[in-house]
Design goal:
heterodimer; A: mainly alpha; MetI-like fold; 2 domains; 17 helices; about 65% helix; flat; B: mainly alpha; two-stranded antiparallel ribbon; about 75% helix
């Protein structure tokens, strides 16, 4: 810097410092802006997450409550079928009795009764029929029966359908809303926790549709995935990290695993469709096939996680074991792998959580179809939580919207529990060498 | 049958372990054993269980195709002449009748009489095959037992052999990864070849018409089927471009802030949030796109269009006021949100890999932090960041659920982000959900699309990994 003093002496001092000061100001302003962009980006990401979760909670929380209607049913001996109570049209029967109670004269075609009937769930029929079948003596008497209201009536009580919308765009007529108000005023309608959502399988009627079938389907699937992917993945990782000779074959396997981890999930769906369903003729849409496909998907992730936690075990442990006369296999299985286990389990749980939310491959192996009821085995067609979300999102009934969001909340709850377990495991057992 | 055999095999294996140790102990009395008795036991266990398991596995993989072949070749002429999917249905119903259940379908005269006989025959074939598998497995087990017990003697290096088996099993585990790739390629290529035999590759890659509905009856009008996938590629590209416009700057800036500006506490709170964003299943993003972002964007554009109508931009206003929920912009924007944590965590790793000495040198010259980032860190990290972006592009191309729920089904060849477009992944799902007849060009075209998707993402991944790796080595 020999020319610096010369530069300094070149001209008047003050304007140059001013110029530098001004430049500095500009530079600091730029610095400030840059920093702001960074904060803005993080704010955006966090904001999106809050918006996403907030919206889903907003749409879904109403589904956890449902409205139940308690109605008196006169078991009319002329109408109730003694031999086969389930064949009786109880909805029509109750609708007519309600109209009579309200003092409304129906027209010749029975439009009022038809409209009234739409307010009851078909569950009413099953409950009434069950009562009669269990106790035939009830015929001729009046029984009170509690059953969920129909999906649109439920939406009205929750404020999703209001009188403010013009009548032709509303799912309920003015008359129906008046009746509902009247029943509510009489105290016949009661809101309570929606147990059906957690104790039933899928149904075409929103008020009777539940998640249990899908939750059990997902659980069976994850069981298959865990039983296959975890041992295979850990085994492969142990081989590659501890035993594999450096060579072309090992390189090939490694490149392969890295690429498999990035193959789009839908490709695994195509593989499952061709290999497990068309070639091996395993039952479509079964937890077995779903679990196998998810296992192949989870394999690379588990291998990568296991390898990194095996790498973290210091070589001194291996050397000590070998020095004491342990064989290579004994070293790995009695020292290295047990020490790496917390990391392995964390990786396994996280990849299982990922597999739980995977949807696209399930659609290809047949889990897009409506499956009522609750699966009992690995070979039966079943739904899974994420595919149920997709099916419900596509359903035309408005009442399925809130239930879709509720299903998402349940799915997210499962994932949060799994991830929290992984984090706790890591916190508890993690060791810094 | 098989399920009955497995517990038996387990019992046999455990018995082999005990007997093997006992035999080793007795034969080695008074002498020094090379391996401990328990290791002999383990060796006996392996030879009892593994051969039988291998046979059972092979039987379960290969019995289905063999069964199909036998059922078909032994069937009466009339059944063989049925169309494939009717034939499948016939055999399914025959099996149901054989098992004493009632069938869902009604079969007409020649078939109805055949059902019970065919049911009995297919049932016999199934039983024969599963019995054959179990007998072969039992035989393999027996041979293994005979072999291993003839081997046990004091000098047997049982430990080394057991360890050799263990390494072999571990190697087999890692080969599963290679087999998966082989399986993917085989299952895609097999049906793709059949597809490209009917539709020329050039027409598939460069054709501009996509309407895969082929005629079911010969006299049907208006559904000849066109398999030009260019609109799908354009739609995929458009959505990917929108997603990257969202994810690249936001993800990169978030990574820069986290690695260069944020304090430890800030980082410790923001990183888990980004991880949660990364862990949200794509079907949830799809729901968000379809029911929140889509309607919001539609209302927004309709309002703007409403203002423009009657003004100088009347035409655009007319268009905007008719925009629908399903558009490329919605799917792209939501996919961009999904990719933010992916881009930011990859970029974070890469920026952190730039040596501290470069930063220190820049600060020593009087540069501000942002100047250091812009003039030193980013140029140094550029290849790595480019690799990360390529990985994100590959993720965007292969993403299915968001486009399935928010992008629409119309195969429009357009770059207009407000129009509904369709993508490769959307079409794969659309073509393969429903009644699958694996002889129709429509279903086969899904495999052509799948193969294209697989190769494009594979290429992107290989290039990206290579870039990132050479970049890492630069600073190691």
């Amino acid at each position: 810097m020999t020319d610096a003093p010369k530069l300094m002496g070149d001209g008047p001092r003050a304007p140059r410092v001013d110029r530098l000061r001004a430049g500095l100001k500009r530079r600091y302003a730029r610095e400030f802006r840059f920093r702001l962009y960074g904060l803005l980006a993080i704010g955006l990401a966090v904001g999106f997450l809050l918006l996403l979760l907030g919206r889903i909670f907003e749409q879904g929380h109403t589904a956890f409550v449902t409205n139940e209607m308690t109605v008196p049913v006169y078991m009319d001996p002329a109408r109730v079928d003694r031999a086969y109570p389930h064949g009786t049209n109880f909805e029509q029967l109750v609708a007519e009795q309600q109209l009579r109670r309200f003092g409304i004269q129906d027209d010749a075609t029975g439009t009022a009764a038809a409209e009234m009937r739409q307010l009851f769930s078909s569950e009413l029929r099953f409950k009434a029929a069950d009562r009669v079948a269990a106790e035939p003596g009830l015929i001729g008497q009046t029984v009170t029966i509690a059953a969920p209201v129909a999906d649109n009536a439920d939406l009205y009580f929750k404020g999703e359908i209001t009188l403010a919308t013009p009548a032709d765009q509303r799912l309920l007529s003015d008359r129906q809303i008046a009746w509902l108000d009247r029943m509510k005023a009489e105290g016949a309608v009661r809101a309570h926790f929606n147990t059906a959502l957690f104790t039933r399988g899928d149904s075409t009627e929103p008020e009777q549709a539940g998640l249990l079938g899908a939750v059990i389907g997902s659980a069976l699937m994850l069981l298959v995935t865990a039983v296959i992917a975890i041992p295979l993945g850990v085994g492969a990782a142990v081989y590659l990290e501890e035993f594999a000779p450096k060579g072309r074959l090992t390189d090939l396997i490694e490149v392969n695993i890295n690429n498999l981890a990035a193959v789009p999930s839908i490709i695994y769906g195509l593989l499952g469709l061709m290999l497990f369903i068309n070639w091996m003729q395993l039952p479509r849409a079964s937890p077995l096939v779903g679990g196998l496909v998810l296992a192949l998907m989870a394999l690379p992730t588990i291998i990568i996680a296991t390898r990194s936690s095996l790498k973290a075990v210091p070589p001194s442990i291996r050397e000590a074991a070998l020095a004491l006369g342990a064989s290579k296999t004994q070293t790995v299985f009695q020292h290295t792998l047990p020490l790496a286990m917390p990391g392995v389990m964390t990786g396994a749980i996280i990849s299982m959580a990922h597999a739980l939310g995977e949807t696209a491959p399930l659609l290809l192996i047949g889990m897009v179809n409506f499956v009522p009821g609750i699966p009992h085995g690995f070979g039966e067609p079943t739904g899974a939580l994420p595919s149920l979300i997709y099916i419900w999102e596509n359903a035309s009934e408005r009442a399925f919207h809130e239930r879709t969001a509720a299903a998402i909340l349940v799915l997210l709850a499962f994932m949060i529990v799994m991830n929290a377990a992984a984090i706790l495991l890591r916190r508890h057992f993690e060791r810094r060498w | 049958m098989t399920w009955l055999f497995l517990p038996l095999l387990l019992i046999a294996a455990i018995a082999a372990w005990f007997v093997g140790s006992a035999v080793a102990r007795r034969r080695g009395e008074g002498q020094r054993l090379h391996s401990r008795p328990a290791q002999h036991g383990a060796y006996a266990l392996i030879w009892t269980a593994v051969p039988a398991l291998v046979v059972l596995f092979a039987a379960s993989v290969f019995s289905a195709p063999v069964e199909r072949h036998l059922t078909l070749t032994g069937a009466p002429e009339v059944v063989q002449q049925l169309e494939p999917f009717r034939r499948e249905a016939f055999f399914a119903d025959a099996r149901a009748v054989g098992a004493g259940r009632t069938t869902m379908q009604v079969w007409v005269a020649p078939y109805a009489e055949l059902l019970p006989a065919e049911g009995a025959r297919t049932g016999r074939i199934g039983q024969m095959l599963s019995l054959g598998g179990v007998v072969a497995a039992a035989l393999a087990c027996l041979l293994g037992v005979l072999f291993v017990f003839s081997q046990i003697r004091p000098g047997l290096r049982a430990r080394n052999r057991v360890e050799g088996w263990i390494v072999g099993v571990l190697f087999a585990c890692s080969v599963v990864a290679v087999l998966t790739t082989v399986g993917i390629i085989a299952s895609l290529v097999y049906d793709s070849i059949r597809f490209f035999a009917e539709v020329p590759i050039a027409e598939f890659l460069f054709g501009t018409q996509w309407s895969p509905q082929t005629a079911i009856r010969v006299d049907q009008v208006g559904s000849t089927g066109a398999f030009g996938a260019l609109p799908l590629f354009a739609g995929t590209f458009l959505i990917m471009l929108i997603a990257m416009t969202v994810a690249a700057p936001v993800g990169l800036f978030a990574a820069i802030y986290l690695s260069e500006y944020a304090g430890p506490i800030f980082r410790a709170t923001v990183k888990p949030v980004l991880e949660i964003l990364a862990g949200v299943p794509t079907v949830v993003y799809g729901f968000f796109a379809a029911l929140t972002v889509g309607p919001a964007f539609r209302v927004f554009f309709n309002e703007i269009g409403g203002w423009m109508i009657g003004g100088p931009l009347d035409g655009i206003g007319q268009y905007l006021s008719l925009v629908q929920n399903q558009m490329a912009l919605v799917a792209g924007a939501v996919m961009g949100i999904m990719l933010i944590p992916f881009v930011s965590s990859l970029s974070d790793d890469i920026i952190n890999a730039v040596p501290q000495s470069l930063r220190d040198g820049s600060y020593a010259m009087g540069a501000t932090r942002s100047e250091t980032v812009k003039r030193v860190l980013l140029p140094a990290a550029l290849p790595g960041v480019a690799g990360a972006m390529l990985l994100a592009v590959s993720r965007a191309i292969g993403e299915t659920m968001i486009v399935l729920m928010a992008a629409g089904a119309a195969a429009n060849l357009t770059l207009n982000p407000l129009s509904p477009v369709t993508t490769v992944t959307y079409q794969i799902v659309a073509l393969l959900t429903g009644d699958n007849d694996f002889n129709s060009t429509k279903v086969l075209s899904a495999f052509g699309l799948g193969l294209t998707l697989f190769f494009v993402t594979l290429l992107l991944n290989i290039v990206a990994h290579r870039i990132v790796q050479t970049y890492r080595q630069q600073y190691d």
